[in-house]
Write a structure and sequence with these properties.
By secondary structure, the chain is α+β, with helices and mostly antiparallel strands. It contains twelve helices and 23 strands. The protein has helices spanning 2-13, 25-38, 83-96, 101-105, 244-255, 279-283, 292-308, 324-330, 363-367, 371-381, 423-439, 477-480; strands at residues 15-16, 42-49, 55-61, 70-75, 109-113, 163-167, 173-175, 183-185, 196-200, 259-265, 335-339, 384-385, 388-394, 404-409, 443-445, 449-454, 457-466, 486-491, 497-500, 504-507, 515-523, 526-534, 538-546. The strands form six sheets. The protein has a six-stranded mixed sheet, sandwiched between helices. Strands 15, 16, 17, 19 and 21 form a five-stranded antiparallel sheet that branches. It has a four-stranded antiparallel sheet with strand order 9-6-14-13, with no helix packed on it. Strand 22 and strand 23 (538-546) form a beta hairpin. Helix 3 (83-96) packs across helix 11 and helix 7 crosses helix 11 (423-439). It is elongated.
């Protein structure tokens, strides 16, 4: 009966965006510790502290203390993207109830950092809500020697910081013909004339002609990493890796060489559309493009994502400077993938009622798709309320003789739907992770061939192969040298000695289905031990009895 009443309430009144299960930092910490307490595979520890003094929690799923090939899943780097943190928590909870977990952890380890920028979490729960992307570091955003002297102001007293639109002859925005709530750039080629100036909600406190240019948003962690660092850009920090959150994540990544790949939930997407190989970008002194063999591996992973896990129609969200996903690949040498985790579901094309044929959109229509309009259409169709503040007229001290209206999208609404819409995304991404783990490299050997030369002399030959779908590590890993290379080593007993061959062989990465043969000439009876593999692919030990 209670479920029926709840259904009727949602049907009649809709889902308000405020009615979500997004976690505050305190509740996130409690949830992680509760998971740690009730599951033998689960360990929660802090890998560092944020600028504001909050612990950066990492949850590890592992069968033992032995370092096995691992996947690192991160979320919450950019405070604007809260959905990734909740998706990550939902995936962890599902995994801990999955009968397959024990089998997975026999060969692999999973690391989760669900909130890499914990300072930004509670901004969404503040009395005055605005999209805070950075941590608690005090910043001088306009570089005038002062910090936070021109903050936002809540001019309509609704507890939200949105936008202002001002009717002005110099304005370059107009109302969209599709939805008057949304403002678009006027296009002179379509005989459109700009009508509005658009600025953030507030006043020019320091009277410098700029609005809210220095509200001390903090440093956006996903702009503070070392690869292609955007120096002097707002929110990037005073220098690369200036923030404790950045250093904590990098330290963990560099010190744990068993991490094979990284999956980041954030504002970028290289899973729906994989990186492209560009010889110009890979042959320069500073490599800025994925290497050829790595691109092929990325295409394989993308197929797991879009075909096996059926996560389709992902938006184009290109990589930006200084982000973690790029740094993990170009500087740490790990396979690194990023996804927003959730996006507006694609609306099926209309069918012609007479011919029952799907109407194919014209190329021109594809170009004119507006993400904000698409979101509002989706929200209306799903009865999701409180995502947009309708434009209303206010009096503004800085524009005394002009019409000024306040309104726009509710902070965080565009990228973070109500929590109930994330359950399916969590399920599909968990399936993708399981497929990714299964595709990781697998080191196999044949039964060693033993040839007895004379009574005390033996020729031992073994073939080592990678039977996984992916290489043992990235091609770029051999360039940057932060990756543990493939190593095949033989250990003899005291009564034995090597006549020919090497104690150990080192080689570069081994591609999928690639193999290599090793041979030794050994004098002396007894058991020899051959160990082969690397940290990102795992090791295999073979005992050879020489009689």
């Amino acid at each position: 009966m209670r479920k029926k009443i709840l259904f009727l309430f949602v049907l009649c009144f809709g889902i308000t965006h405020a009615q979500t299960d997004y976690l505050s930092y305190e509740n996130l910490s409690k949830s992680l510790k509760a998971l740690d307490a009730k599951n033998k595979y689960c360990t929660v520890k802090s890998i560092g502290k944020s600028s504001g003094g909050k612990e950066i929690w990492m949850l590890t799923l592992s069968e033992s203390m032995i370092a096995k090939p691992a996947l690192l899943i991160t979320a919450g780097l950019d405070g604007k993207h809260r959905a990734g943190t909740l998706i990550t928590i939902k995936m962890i909870e599902s995994l801990l109830n999955d009968d397959k977990l024990a089998a997975i952890l026999k060969e692999k380890t999973l690391y989760f950092v669900p909130a890499a920028n914990p300072d930004a979490i509670d901004a969404a729960f503040a009395a005055l809500k605005m999209e805070k992307r950075g941590n608690d570091t005090k910043t001088d955003d306009d570089r005038d020697g002062k910090s936070g002297e021109d903050p936002f102001e809540d001019l309509n007293k609704d507890g939200l910081i949105t936008q202002l639109r001002i009717e002005d002859v110099t304005g370059s925005f107009i109302e969209s013909p599709e939805d008057s709530r949304v403002l678009i750039k006027a296009d002179p080629t379509k005989n459109q004339v700009g009508k509005y100036l658009v600025i953030s909600e507030g006043i020019d406190t320091d009277k410098d002609g700029l609005f809210n240019e220095d509200f001390s948003e903090g440093v956006n962690i996903d702009k503070n990493f070392t690869f292609d660092y955007p120096a002097f850009e707002k929110g990037a920090g005073v220098y690369a890796a200036s923030e404790p959150e950045t250093r904590a994540l990098l330290d963990f990544l560099y010190l744990n060489q068993n991490i094979y790949g990284v999956l980041t939930f954030g504002m970028h997407n290289n899973l729906s559309e994989t990186p492209k190989y560009d010889s110009k970008l890979t042959s320069s002194r500073i490599v800025k493009g994925w290497l050829e063999k790595d691109v092929k591996a990325a295409e394989q992973v993308s197929k797991l994502y879009t075909q096996k896990a059926a996560i389709k129609d992902g938006p184009k969200m290109p990589m930006t400077k200084g982000n973690f996903a790029q740094t993990a690949y170009f500087h740490a040498g790990r396979f690194s993938f990023s996804t927003p985790g959730w996006w507006i579901p694609k609306v099926e094309a209309k069918k012609d009622s007479i011919n029952s044929k799907v109407e194919k959109p014209k190329d021109k229509d594809k170009e004119e798709v507006n993400a904000e309009i698409s979101f509002l259409k989706w929200a209306d169709s799903q009865n999701v309320n409180d995502v947009f503040v309708n434009w209303s007229v206010i009096k503004h001290l800085d524009f005394p003789n002009q019409k000024v209206e306040v309104g726009g999208f509710v902070p965080y609404a565009l990228n973070n739907p109500p929590a109930n819409f994330l359950a399916e995304a969590a399920t599909k991404h968990l399936f993708f992770i399981e497929e990714f783990l299964a595709a990781m490299p697998k080191i196999e050997t044949n039964i060693p061939e033993i040839k007895k030369i004379n009574d005390n002399l033996y020729r031992v030959t073994i073939k080592v192969a990678n039977k996984g779908l992916l290489p043992t590590y990235t091609e770029i890993g051999d360039k940057i040298r932060f990756i543990s290379k493939m190593k095949t080593e033989i250990v003899l007993q005291k009564n034995q000695f090597m006549v020919s061959g090497r104690k150990y062989f080192i080689r570069n990465n081994m591609q999928a289905d690639e193999s290599e043969e090793y041979s030794w000439l050994i004098s002396g009876k007894g058991t020899v031990t051959i160990t082969t593999g690397c940290a990102t692919a795992g090791f295999k030990e073979v005992l050879v009895d020489l009689k």
